[in-house]
Amino acid sequence: MADGKPSKGSSGRSYRTGAGLTKTPRKVKGRKESSRRWIQRQLNDPFVAEAKSRGFRSRAALKLEQIDQKHKLLFPDAKVLDLGCAPGGWLQYASRRIGLEDGRGVLVGIDLLETEPVMGASILKGDINDDAMMAEMIRLIDGKADLVLSDMAADTTGHRPTDHIRTTLLLDLALDMAQRVLTPGGAFLAKCFRGGAERDALELMRRDFATVRHVKPAASRQESVESYVLATGFRGDRPEE
Ligand SMILES: C[S@@+](CC[C@H](N)C(=O)[O-])C[C@H]1O[C@@H](n2cnc3c(N)ncnc32)[C@H](O)[C@@H]1O
Asked: Is 191 marked active-site?
């Protein structure tokens, strides 16, 4: 926090990162300004430190934890799909909550990138937009899921409208998957950059789910356009189109 005020991590601990305590990256000469800023932010981000100290592969795990603590999405024995799962922070958190290491629940993840294994989880490397991958995910989850998660984000171009449309396309694909596999009462949580193009997806969600809301966990940087959409109470009776 640049203002020096303490902020609370997911575990409730307070951090102070104000003047005098701010870490500055070493050996960053010659890097692009945006990359220098990213490194500086990482070094001074309390959520990065907390995620690391708790053994999570990404600070993103804390976002899911914060949303889950508030909205009670994960439960023992749940069947969960994680779209855009690399490097695996959400998989790690979901695995703990559903009891995967004790042989409970089902967890299936997919990403374009390689993801380190998570004990008990099935992880695919591929594109959610590929029909064969989609069929394989549905097979691995045995046709039905209680929760579909998507933290998918496209590589950013720096051109905000283009980035918004690309991420919204991923939201559409994730929603399509959720509509195929969710059990009645199931939930869908997805990254959603607000900017207008996501309106159609939100409309479909309002049709198919009892409740649709935007959520922004504390671990999601306040200055970022990132937010999440959470749809709960899947109706399970998708009308014929
Ligand atoms: C923010 S990261 C996910 C972080 C993850 N939730 C975690 O906790 O570690 C977004 C991921 O979405 C993936 N992604 C983007 N487009 C995708 C696609 N079409 N199919 C599968 N994964 C995709 C990216 O490769 C990237 O790893």
From this structure: yes
Rounded distance from Cα 19 to ligand 1 centre (Å): 34
Q: How far is CA 119 from CA 55, 84, 104, 144, in A?
A: 14, 18, 12, 21
pLDDT tens-place values along the chain, 241 residues long: 333 333 444 444 433 333 345 555 555 556 677 677 667 666 678 889 999 999 999 999 999 999 999 999 999 999 999 999 999 999 999 999 999 999 999 999 999 999 999 999 999 999 999 999 999 999 999 999 999 999 999 888 888 888 888 889 999 999 999 999 999 999 999 999 877 778 899 999 999 999 999 999 999 888 788 899 999 999 986 555 5
**90 CB near ligand 1 (under 6 Å):** yes
What is the pTM assigned to this prediction?
Answer: 0.85
Domain that holds residue 138: 60-234
Q: Where are the beta strands (DSSP E) in 84-181?
A: 106-111, 122-125, 145-150
Mark whether 140 and 170 lie in a shared domain: yes
Return the CATH number at 158: 3.40.50.150
Tell whether 147 and 168 lie within a shared domain: yes
